[in-house]
Amino acid sequence: MTATTAELAPSEPTTPPTTGTATLPPARRWERLALAVLLIGTAAAYLWNITVNGMGNNFYAAAAWAGSENWKALLFGSLDPGNFITVDKPPLSQWIMGLSGQIFGFSSASMLAPEAIMAVLAVALMYGAVARATHSRAAGLLAGLVLALTPVVALMFRFNNPDAAMVLCMTAAAYCTIRALPKASWKWLALAGVALGFAFLAKMLEGLMSLPALGLAYLIVAPTTLRNRVLHSLGALVALIVSSGWYVLLTILWPESSRPYLAGSKDNTFMDLVLGYNGFSRYLGKNHIGGGKKGNPFGLPEGYEIPKSFRGGFGGFSGAGPDRLFTGEIAFEISWLLPAALVAFLLVLISRWRAPRADLVRGASLVFGLWVVIDGVLFAEMKSGMHAYYTLTIAPAIAGSFAIGVYELWRRRADVIGRVGGAALILAAGIWGFVVLQRNSHWQPWLRWTELAVTVVAAVGLLVLALPPAARWDRFRGRATALLLAIGVLAGLAGSAAYAVATLPESHTGGGPTVGPKMPEKPGPMDLFRKQIQTIFGGDVNPQLVTLLQGTDTMWSAAIDRSSPAAGLELASRTSVLAIGGFLSEDPVPSLSQFQDYVRNHQITYYLTTQVHLPDAWRTDKKPAETGPDAPKPDPDQGIWYPGGNADIRNWVQAHYTQTRKIGDMVVYDLTAPAH
């Protein structure tokens, strides 16, 4: 790394090319070797023991399995091979994992290995973007290294959520934009639009969050007339619409009767899903967990309420506010170098204030810096709860902004701005790294103190070297500045790198994976109930139930409320399960009449529902029960919760079919038996 930092710029301060070409000079041997080590090391680290994550998120794993079994399920991202309903996201990620399953056979390895390969591609694109912008391969290596050592990247590029595919496409769009800047290339800008179009097909509007930053950077920097810049931008927008719109058009033209229901939408249309459930409704806090009315989103029986302290068990969502990116799990996943990236963005703008409008270094800094700022504000103002891993979208922006800032300060290390700015950058990384590590103080306590001490010493040394009296040491000042910058940058990366390394060997499953070392479980009276809830929402499946479903021969072995438990049953039994109501149990399918048709046509064998006995602590009425001969008899169903929102189907089944057995908390009804 010292050699890498030493080559960030020429030994004497110079002005790098500002316009013309983004072609890199021929790579030297150490640069080729360093790039190979970076890419091979990323592949080895991310692929190593990747099956420790099992099926990751069962919800998306079931769709990947369905896509490996059925081409229509692959095309639409269906949750089940019977093509009843999709997952609530576009299918780009499922295309990759499902195709891998078709080629190599579906397994944890065939599903997750493509995610790790995406990490290698993202690191390579980061290297290429920053190296071309700065004409420094070492700066590109630093950007790729920072990305690979970001904890949320180490988490999500070994996981099967759509985020990895989306962020790879967003990184590709940034790379293409930087390639477009030197010569105002409409072709490269159009490719950036295509990349964002595919990011949209991974996770809808979230995939377009970097669009304003890329567009503004091109409009400001591209060396052509304003008219051409606007026309090129409009052309890129057309490319974006075409590369994503074909799928939207497909869902419109394909007869609804022969395709799965688009989960999350109210009217089975893709754009309702984009603008509603996965768009403005989510951003403005209008979505809620299904199964009940507003105010009782979990569909609990009357007289019961879920405690606020327990709701974190349903996803670990983070509250809104300007400090959102610096608190809770989000801080551990993404914030390590966020302050330093913002400082770097500001310092590059100051350092290159007098550069021509088409300055490429400043243009690349605008790409990544505006990306950080705009997306950070959007996340901070998002009204609904958000998983910490959503912040994966700004990981490339932080890496790029930080690396370009280091490059620029290194280039100007003989000037006051290089030394003072370098001290500010190093302190921003080191002090914040200490603060974040302090929040997990029992883990490697020596690390936070070491990072703080080394970065403070390096920063103070740079400030001392910036003072006028230090000019008498001019013979040694240049080497000392270079050494302190290199040591400070390395130390500033320590916390992020350590947490990323600690993330890799841990098993991550479920809907809310977290980074870092495994935290000790806190025993308590709610632990058993919490595990019961996790099982209901797609966790472990009883082996007896698996055997039961495997013995069926209908289109769907069973039907059950919500997609998560249906996904868990599918993966355990490798049979198709009908998910009533979709992910939140709010999708209007199947209707009661449609469900009755499925039963009448012998397309479903079993109906499954769960009965959960709620803790007494969840009662809103804590009055003691009446006693005595005249006291009313207790309701046998009091405190029994059916975690699903389709009571009409459940009531119809209970009225016409007899419970055949109970396996754990799962009640089984045989729909092939004569109705009564």
Concise synopsis of the structure shown:
The chain is mainly alpha-helical and 676 residues long. The chain is built from 26 helices and 7 strands.
Q: Can you describe what's shown?
A:
The chain has 676 residues and is mainly alpha-helical. It contains 26 helices and seven strands. The protein has helices spanning 2-6, 29-47, 58-69, 71-76, 92-104, 108-134, 137-148, 151-156, 163-180, 186-203, 211-221, 226-253, 270-283, 328-334, 338-351, 360-381, 395-411, 416-438, 445-466, 474-492, 494-503, 527-536, 543-550, 563-573, 592-600, 647-656; strands spanning 556-561, 577-580, 604-610, 612-613, 640-641, 659-663, 666-670. The strands form two sheets. The chain has a five-stranded mixed sheet, sandwiched between helices. A two-stranded antiparallel sheet has the order 4-5. Helix 24 links the parallel strand 1 and strand 2. Helix 2 (29-47) runs antiparallel to helix 6 (108-134) and helix 10 (186-203) runs parallel beside helix 12.
Describe the secondary structure blueprint for this structure:
Blueprint: H1 2-6, H2 29-47, H3 58-69, H4 71-76, H5 92-104, H6 108-134, H7 137-148, H8 151-156, H9 163-180, H10 186-203, H11 211-221, H12 226-253, H13 270-283, H14 328-334, H15 338-351, H16 360-381, H17 395-411, H18 416-438, H19 445-466, H20 474-492, H21 494-503, H22 527-536, H23 543-550, E1 556-561, H24 563-573, E2 577-580, H25 592-600, E3 604-610, E4 612-613, E5 640-641, H26 647-656, E6 659-663, E7 666-670
Helix pairs in contact: 2-6, 2-7, 3-5, 3-24, 5-6, 6-7, 6-9, 6-16, 6-17, 7-17, 9-10, 10-12, 11-16, 15-16, 15-17, 15-18, 16-17, 17-18, 18-19, 18-20, 19-20
